[in-house]
Fold these 2 entries.
Entry 1:
Amino acid sequence: MTPESPVSDPHVLLRVIAKFLIPLIALFAFYVQFHGDYGPGGGFQAGVILAVSIILYALIFGLDEAKRAFPPALIRIGMSLGVLLYGGTGVVAWMLGGEFLNYSALAHDAIHGQHWGILAIELGVLTTVTSVMLAIFYAFGSRQPDIEDGEW
Amino acid sequence: MIQAATTSSHISTIFLDFGLLALLVIVAFAIVRMRSLFAIVMLQGVYSLVAAAWFVTLDAVDVAFTEAAVGAGISTVLMLAAMLLADRESTPIAMKRQWGPLAVVLIAGVAMLYAVPDLPAYGDANSPANSYVGTDYLAKTATEVDVPNVVTAVLASYRGYDTFGEAVVIFAAGLGVLLLLGLNGNAGRYRAEVDGHKLSPEHAPSGSTDKPAAKHSSEDAAHRPSITQFEGDSS
Amino acid sequence: MDGLLSHVNYVVVIILMMTGLYVVFASRNLIKKLVGLSVFQTSVFLFYITLAKVAGGQPPILIKDKGSPTGYDDHSAYVDTVELAASGATYILPGQGSDVLYSNPLPHVLILTAIVVGVATLAIGLALTVRIREVYQTIEMDTIESDDFHYNLEGIDTSGPRFDRVRDTT
């Protein structure tokens, strides 16, 4: 998206509003993540909203810019890191004396253990969902279409 | 019980309920009749959004949140991205080919409608679905997990295995899409390098408008275009 | 009339399900099939959540008792469980003596999982559609099936660029 001159750029309104909104959307995603215990929300919704903020950035400023800001290597790592976090919490609970995914063993008493366990797995779910949605978007967005836009 | 359910709701709530349901039915029928794929994909986004509103009236706030974010958000974006790589119009179906699916759907619908009177009344608090494990979770979350959102407590703690499986399913789907399309969009089209030596002279497109050459070889009938189509290239 | 009003939601949901299923069966375009599948899945979710609704009920988020202190919101130091329970946040639970009803949370949890799994399968289906489009140059099932039939029966490769019918001969 390279305009001939900044004044006649047809996308200047979109860019300005997107620059304002994208950090707010990401902040809302983290709000939803951490307040999933007290209201509607949780890892899945937060992951999708965070991915959507990055997708908005890619739509307005270009896929190459988005790939520079959020490199595909990081996305690839994030996909598996989230599942590892989730399974790792279960294994740590197992090692500490409880069963697999029994969070009560994670802290000095059961209630605190449950809180820590839920926090850890929601973080894992956030990482996985964001990375997977972004990976799918990058995969579809980078594929070269067979028919050019002028031939439709 | 049924009396309490219907007389306790205000007239405006009934209008809202029936309005949302009518909107869902109209959008579903419009999807059947449309031919433009762009319109169909956007209507699917509208359907998900109205369904999310209907979930809110059914007191399922977590589900409404997820349906709005996932169904009306990500799902529409992915379908539009895929549609951009495919076609814009769908060919209409001949009338005589519609009778078979219509018959199957009518028979299945009648069979399900036959079972409707056995279902519990809408809003029944003592139905079998609302009696056993659900009430147990509501009663025990405060003392065992101490988290106000019971859905999060059940999802993360009581049914943690299922959520683990769900995270793995999302991971597997991401993996599948990466295997099919590639993170930079070039899976299945261009062969990799072995020890720095490129096996094929073709290059990944750099964003130019050239189409990749020699996608189909016609000299060998057994050489079917497939995912591994470049294995036997003579070039 | 009461019987009709109490069951009309199920009838509408079944109509929606059958509409989605009809789109899956009847349409020959792959993307339209996937859209029909998505409509069908959302209708099934509507059915489950309709079962979970309790008349006069709240969303399944426990309400704090007005008399209790803020409890673990000001969690500045480690608090023993006994002390937490003694000082702490109590919630209004459904059951004997309380007039608060909550909707059943279990179907909500199941449907939350199902929504996310649905979008995962949709992504794979769309990736397969894109690959099919690249090989067959079309996403209409009729053309794809006739191409496969001709290839398997007669060895004729009739797929290829359709808009100019020019074969690449290497």
Entry 2:
Amino acid sequence: MLDKNGIAKRIAREVQDGYYVNLGIGIPTLVANYIPEGMHVVLQSENGILGMGPFPVEGTEDADLINAGKQTVTLLPGSSIFDSAMSFGMIRSQKVNLTILGAMEVSEFGDIANWKIPGKMVKGMGGAMDLVASAKNIIVAMQHVNKAGESKLLPKCELPITGLRCVKKIVTELAVLDVLPQGGFKLLERAPGVSVEQIVKATAGKLIVEGDIPEMVL
Amino acid sequence: MINRSVKNAEEAIAGITDNMTLLVGGFGLCGIPENCINALVQSGVKGLTCISNNAGVDDFGLGLLLQNKQIKKMISSYVGENAEFERQMLSGELEVELIPQGTLATRALAAGYGMPVIYTPAGVGTEVAAGKEVRNFNGKDYLMEYAFDADFAIVKAWKGDTTGNLVFRHTARNFNPLMAMAGKITIAEVEELVEPGQLDPDHIHTPGIYVHRIFKGQVFEKRIEQRTVIKR
């Protein structure tokens, strides 16, 4: 079973040289720590940065320089700054190659719910609806089951939808799965020490298991 | 030479009266027009509709207007960091319309570009789409969203000149140039106000034609919401 850093490490293997990548808040942010040295990847932050760098060294933080999670960050050589309309313009026109974000639920058709729990959490969708409606490649980083032990990979989302038929791949503490266009979670890899039976038990939506499922290489 | 400078925040917000709609620049607490907000708190104006990505925190930014019950309705994309906001929303005192961040930005852009509507895929198939026109272009569904129609815009820039030209700094740019373009009357507060000719015309982010009143802010607290640093 993977911890949060393990999930981030596995997702980092999906990133390719030359990619522009938008990382959501939480586990996706950790992916930046595992991008191999020598690979040229540009991080986009939807409040208006291309070429976002790591957190600043104590004492050099700047109130005018934050990421979409409102954390202080830095700029790397070659970075650029732009307004919020252009930021979502480059997302909408699919110039950003990969979006990695968290989710509360994903359906077997790739629908995603991650912005609202009626009566409980009403913080707003921020940029999530724009990202999922436009990105050509969306990977979800999340736990396979929720705190109550219920599967988050469902036949149909029960929480309010963020976007329809958009998630392509899911990486959880248990598995890597593709979401097939015709519907269904295709099991690709098991996390170290996790059995196919454990994944079957934790998946409420249609799970497709074909042949031997290899263990992840991290 | 057109001179759009005014003395201070109090003078700048003249004409903002009860029940008006305001566009407010900023993302989180970054690049918010804190001097104008403080002046609005002092003025006691009520029943405002504020279009702003976020709603500040309890004791800073738009949170101050919320505490004072001066805001009737918020149109935002994310309002997570504000306990008073949540309380007023759940009790029904505050009307809230949550819209996607890119939709918010582009509805302001459309207003500034003189276009009545935009079509965006954000929100298709979600509760955001309720009651909205959906059109299919090239096999994909899009929602029709209207350009914002607001009385005033209040924005914050780094530098400006007395003709209203603005330059922003780092991610404090965010929604500011968009809100500036979208206001019928736009008020800009700047950290540094200079004479015409002192800003390079090639480096202007917002041309002064969009800015009707400009002043040097008295105080910029520039609070940081999440100070994340690497230890020395």
